[in-house]
């Protein structure tokens, strides 16, 4: 629980740095691969209303709104939500994962889709959060989860296991401070997590970085 509390603190301290990095498109994998991957995957399933969970500064919600999808963004970091509201029309609310787990009704619920784009960092609470999100899905609604592909562990010569990492801001430009821990799962442990929470895997995508031909992310569609 201490690691999970520190995640919110770290994001609050680094919100301005994150907004700057995203506005200047300084994360190459997002520009080349992962932004397009999550948008195209969601569009393929034609949801009319989507929750962007952990929306940050709101880029994904704005992208989906441009495709005619009603999208509501929520995030636990007030500075990021403030930026999302300033950057364009749409509904953005400050809601933490702990509030969702505790039963808070999400604005605009129920949703045909919930997008969680690189915003799952915890070990035990991730399963609890996914279980709680079922209350906000329509029958047959889907959750779209994009996360760092665990292949990076093999690429770095590390043991391929599910484990905590400390370097949340590793490789990012700017004055990022106070990095938080984040939990990386193997593909097998991701699939077991979905099964244990009563979800069915609809689709698994592994978008490749065109420069390296290595997986840039793992993208799960579950319902």
What is the topological layout?
Blueprint: H1 2-23, H2 28-44, E1 49-53, H3 59-66, E2 70-75, H4 78-87, E3 91-94, H5 97-101, E4 111-117, H6 124-133, E5 137-147, H7 151-155, E6 163-165, E7 182-184, H8 187-196, E8 201-205, E9 218-222
Parallel strand pairs: 1-2, 1-4, 2-3, 4-5
Antiparallel strand pairs: 5-9, 6-7, 8-9
Helix pairs in contact: 1-4
Which properties best describe this structure?
223 residues, alpha/beta, Rossmann fold, seven-stranded mixed beta sheet, two-stranded antiparallel sheet
**Distance, first to last CA:** 27 Å
Main beta-sheet strand count, sense and barrel state:
7 strands, mixed
* Molecular shape: globular
Mean pLDDT, to the nearest integer, reads: 96
Range of strand content: 15-25%
Look at the structure and give the CATH class: Alpha Beta
What's the tally of helices? 8
Order of helices and strands: HHEHEHEHEHEHEEHEE
CATH architecture assignment: 3-Layer(aba) Sandwich
What Rg, in angstroms, do the CA atoms define?
Answer: 16 Å
Total strands: 9
Q: How are the strands of the biggest sheet laid out side by side?
A: 3-2-1-4-5-9-8
CATH level-four homologous superfamily name: Vaccinia Virus protein VP39
Helix content: 25-40%
Would you tell me the structural class of the helices and strands?
alpha/beta
Low-confidence stretches: none
Tell me the count of domains. Answer: 1
Write a structural description.
The chain is an alpha/beta fold. The protein has a single domain, classed as Rossmann fold, CATH 3.40.50. The protein is built from eight helices and nine strands. Strand 4 (111-117), helix 6 and strand 5 form a beta-alpha-beta unit. The longest helix has 22 residues, at 2-23. The two termini are 27 Å apart. The mean pLDDT is 96.
């Amino acid at each position: 629980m201490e690691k999970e509390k520190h995640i919110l603190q770290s994001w609050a301290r680094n919100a301005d740095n994150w907004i700057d990095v995203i506005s200047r498109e300084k994360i190459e994998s997002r520009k080349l691969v992962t932004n397009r991957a999550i948008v195209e995957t969601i569009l393929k399933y034609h949801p009319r209303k989507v929750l962007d969970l952990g929306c940050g500064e709101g880029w994904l919600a704005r992208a989906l709104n441009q495709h005619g999808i009603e999208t509501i963004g929520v995030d636990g970091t007030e500075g990021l939500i403030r930026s999302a509201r300033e950057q364009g029309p749409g509904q953005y609310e400050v809601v933490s994962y702990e509030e969702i787990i505790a039963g808070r009704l999400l604005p605009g619920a129920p949703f045909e889709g919930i997008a969680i784009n690189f915003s799952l960092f915890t070990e035990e609470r991730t399963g609890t959060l996914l279980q709680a999100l079922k209350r906000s899905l329509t029958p047959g609604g889907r959750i779209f989860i994009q996360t760092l592909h665990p292949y990076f562990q093999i690429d770095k010569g590390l043991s391929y296991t599910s484990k905590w990492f400390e370097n949340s801001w590793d490789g990012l430009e700017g004055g990022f401070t106070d990095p938080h821990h984040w939990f990386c799962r193997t593909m097998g442990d991701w699939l077991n997590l979905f099964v244990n929470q009563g979800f069915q895997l609809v689709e698994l995508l592994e978008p490749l970085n065109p420069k390296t031909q290595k997986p840039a992310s793992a993208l799960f569609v579950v319902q």
